[in-house]
């Protein structure tokens, strides 16, 4: 069985989930695993001295379970229960290919996941736009005052710097301020190219 793993990482509210959902509707046999589904319950998430819940760190997530889900999918992509509509204009030779999109905000600094990918994308946003988008969303638990500047944004910068310093990391950085159509069209063509290479 041929399969392709695409990882989408982004700053909070960078558009990765929307992009993943749209791609799922366009690609053959496509599944999504979302990092947000692996958050620990609030009671298990550490709180720092300022009273901020530390959600933007790997310790706030059941990462072993996430890796296990990805590995289970790899073992049996056809058995993962994916039933897709025939995506428009997919060439016949792509019918036997399975695609997994893994989307999250802390994917590339976790070693066990790093051995698994085919393509990696990172959606970035400038500070002002990111803060604006974040303020329009409702979170459970809700963001406390100062949380974005005190925890979310500094953790994102720290994470992105670690990534950029790691020369062996092949990551395609995408500008999250571009229109969804533009991003979708770019990533879709990129994945199709990758699939065609896979099938050669």
TrEMBL record:
Keyword entries, A-Z: ATP-binding, Kinase, Magnesium, Metal-binding, Nucleotide-binding, Pyridine nucleotide biosynthesis, Transferase
Keyword Magnesium on entry: yes
Pathway: Cofactor biosynthesis; NAD(+) biosynthesis
UniProt superkingdom: Eukaryota
One MF annotation (Gene Ontology) recorded for this entry: nicotinate riboside kinase activity
Catalytic activity: beta-nicotinamide D-riboside + ATP = beta-nicotinamide D-ribonucleotide + ADP + H(+); beta-D-ribosylnicotinate + ATP = nicotinate beta-D-ribonucleotide + ADP + H(+)
GO biological process: NAD+ metabolic process; pyridine nucleotide biosynthetic process
Any single Gene Ontology cellular-component annotation: cytosol
InterPro entries cross-referenced by the UniProt entry: P-loop_NTPase
One Pfam entry name: AAA_18
Family: Belongs to the uridine kinase family. NRK subfamily.
Protein name, as recorded: NRK1 kinase
Organism: Cettia cetti
């Amino acid at each position: 069985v041929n399969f392709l793993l695409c990882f989408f990482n982004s700053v909070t509210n960078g558009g990765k989930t929307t992009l993943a959902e749209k791609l799922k509707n366009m690609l053959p046999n496509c599944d999504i695993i979302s990092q947000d589904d692996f958050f620990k319950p609030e009671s298990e998430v550490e709180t720092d001295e300022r009273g901020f819940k530390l959600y933007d760190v790997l310790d706030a997530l059941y990462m072993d379970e996430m890796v296990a889900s990805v590995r289970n999918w790899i073992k049996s992509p056809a058995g993962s229960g994916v039933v897709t509509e025939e995506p428009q204009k997919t060439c016949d030779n792509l019918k036997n290919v399975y695609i997994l999109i893994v989307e999250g905000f802390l994917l590339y600094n976790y070693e066990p996941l790093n051995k698994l990918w085919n393509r990696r994308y990172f959606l970035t946003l400038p500070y002002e736009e990111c803060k604006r988008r974040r303020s329009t969303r409702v979170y459970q638990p809700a963001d406390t005052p100062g949380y974005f500047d005190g925890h979310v944004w500094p953790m994102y910068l720290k994470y992105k710097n670690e990534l950029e310093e790691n020369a062996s990391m092949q990551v395609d950085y995408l500008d999250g301020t571009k229109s969804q159509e533009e991003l979708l069209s770019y990533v879709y063509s990129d994945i199709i190219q990758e699939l065609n290479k896979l099938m050669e």
